[in-house]
Amino acid sequence: MESKIFTKLLIFGAMNTAAFMFSQNTENDTITRGKAIDEVVVTGNSNPKASIKTSTSISTLKMKDIENAAPRTTAEIFRTIPGIRSESSGGEGNSNITVRGVPVSAGGSRYLLIQEDGLPVMQFGDIAFGTQDQFTRFDSFVSRVEALRGGSASVFASNSPAGIINFITKTGEKEGGSITQQMGLNYKNYRTDFDYGTKIGDDTYMAVGGFYRIGDGPRKTGFNSNNGGQFRLSLLKKFEKGSFRIYAKVLDDRTAAYMPMPVGVTGTDADPKWSSLPNYNILTGALQTINLQHDRTLGNDGNIFNTDVSDGMHSLSKVIGAEFNYNLGEGWKLEEKIRYAANGGQFVAPFPASVSKGSDFFNTANFANFGSAVYAGTNTPVDMNANYMKIALFNVKLNNFNNFVNDFNISKKWDVVKFNAGLYKSSQNINMSWMWNNYLQEVSDKNARLIDVKNTAGQYITDNGLLNYGMKDWGNLKRDYNTKYDITAPHAQVEINATDKLTIDAGARYDIGKVTGYFSGATVTYTSRDMNGNGVIDIPEQMVGSNDNINIPVNYRYGIFGYSMGANYALNNKNAVFARVSRGGSASADRILFSGYNYTNNDDPALDAVKVNKVNQVEAGYKLRGSGYFLNTTLFYAGTKEANYEATTQKKTENKYQSFGVELDGYYKITQGLDVKAGLTYTHAEIKNAIDPTIIGNMPRRTPKLMYSVNPNFNANKFNVGFYLIGATKAFTQDNNKLVMPGYAIVNPYVSYQVLKNLSVSLNANNIFNTIAVTEAEEGSIAGGNGIVRARTLPGASYSVSVKFDL
């Protein structure tokens, strides 16, 4: 199979060469829909320029591209970008995102940073239950999205060695705006986006925008699980030698978090058949239920903590920022970006700790002295032939995720040289409380019922479905994190236009990190307490999980040296080749806490080995432009060394990975009204070293060899129609390389019509053929199992209609 793929790549390379030869005699021309690729890009460049003149791989998504793709979440925006793997099955946050075979360790996006206007949303992309996409929302206030893949990101941002995705917002310089009303057709979703920009004085501009929505999303939770919105404001003042901008954002949004679900799997590990279980549709179902909307647990402060489970991922963010740039004269320029964000909220989601048929689920090995089981609140015995789950209710209070970021730059430009030096300063709080409980619940996507169990003496060992106050199976998990990550990073870049055709650039960055604070809850502690207030210590209340209140101090430092050197050679005004070598890293944040290291000894080699994750990269590519087409071809290599700790498996890992492959990004205008955009990424990845020697030589989990997207688009006068085909080949669920997640291709069509000059109507669909697309799974094999695997899939078919009024 691989030989066939390589043969196709060789053929494609020959096509590149032929296109290059042809382009020598064609006239220079601009292209329409693909023109965005050659626009001036600002992300990951000290000297903004057209992408063909850079030695980087960067894509620009315009508003219309994103609207056509109809993303239901922020992470779904990224799935059409070549080289980026975005596992957007978790809802509006908690998504796993990575680039070019760099591994997804446990969750989030450790090696890729999401920015808004050039500054990070969060300083770390993989904070447990507080990932950066949870605090990022796309709305019509966004002007464009720039996605940088590769090593140059190492010197332009901290903790982003694999790439940067930058949301660039509107400033009001372009007069006008829009109001868009969107409604789900086969699911409940009502959303309004708005934005408006105008000139309010001499060289002074204002822009406002945001969104509000309510509904239950593409999966049926039984309640309004999506409820909230965002408001943004920008004020810009331009003057003769520069500009000053101040902006603000307020986000208050509740969305459902989708955890792995029970999925039926038959066949063999190498050739599995994935399907829905009785009473549960894996394309539309959710583990949330109206019968579990309130959770009572013992807070880590010793008081009872009540939670509305329907809050789900509750993201709160209040942001204020400013940008200042000034031309000092004689080639000198000053740039300053500063921002403060007050972030917090909560993360509540049911996770299936175990799933099986009733006859197995309630056996005495699982429940000592099992007598009987009934549906909670009734005397109706459970169906022993149905499926049941032990739920771990992830209940995490995001107390304080505030961050402060400042990036100061000064540059000097000579005839052929531009030098930039700067100082980056940031602080990131990670203060959260884990307060998990165990529940028993049937497997159903229609108002799933909770289960109560009696022992042989007829006593309830549960309380309305609640089995344990705490999470006994995983060591209680009544945790408190209270740490602060302080980063000081001097950086410098130089760009030399050696000749009219050759540009050379080099940059370096050194992150000086200081981590302070403490955490508690490392040991299992239980207490007896009347949690429900009935005056009796019931069986579930005899061992209530509690925080041990033993504060383990954290006080260590780390350093990350990153560099990137690249060269771009323009063969002519349509062809360029480039190469780049880079090194960078990402600091381990909360993921290494509770792993047993000495967090106050900077000289401890065990801690030193895990506090920084390192990535080395090599890239080489060819960029082709012509009349009505472009093609970017990039060969890449990445070597990664990382450490991690996963709460749900209680496993500590220290692995080395290697990946290489090719990334293709193209556009072709077939006729005046018909064009196609496409991207393809081939990756060969391998685990080179690990604590577990049995996985050495295997492919990293959830890494497909081939990812692709194709977008044909037809535009005739007022009518526009097209579709996105997004797919990936098979991958393994775990590093043991046994159970296969099948390849998939999902189709997302769209059609729009310009009714009036300022009024348009659009119809969009996602996964129109209800393809089962598995993105992750907990189990590594079906051998010896019960035919049920806990996995996350992309949602099934969803349809929406929107009406847009241009102001």
TrEMBL record:
Protein name: Outer membrane receptor proteins, mostly Fe transport
Organism: Chryseobacterium taichungense
Domain TonB-dependent receptor-like beta-barrel: 274-768
Single GO MF descriptor: siderophore uptake transmembrane transporter activity
A single Gene Ontology CC term: cell outer membrane
Gene3D superfamilies xref list: TonB-dependent receptor, beta-barrel domain, TonB-dependent receptor, plug domain
Phylogenetic lineage: Bacteria, Pseudomonadati, Bacteroidota, Flavobacteriia, Flavobacteriales
Compartments in which it is found: Cell outer membrane
Pfam families, A to Z: Plug, TonB_dep_Rec_b-barrel
Family: Belongs to the TonB-dependent receptor family.
Keyword ATP-binding: no
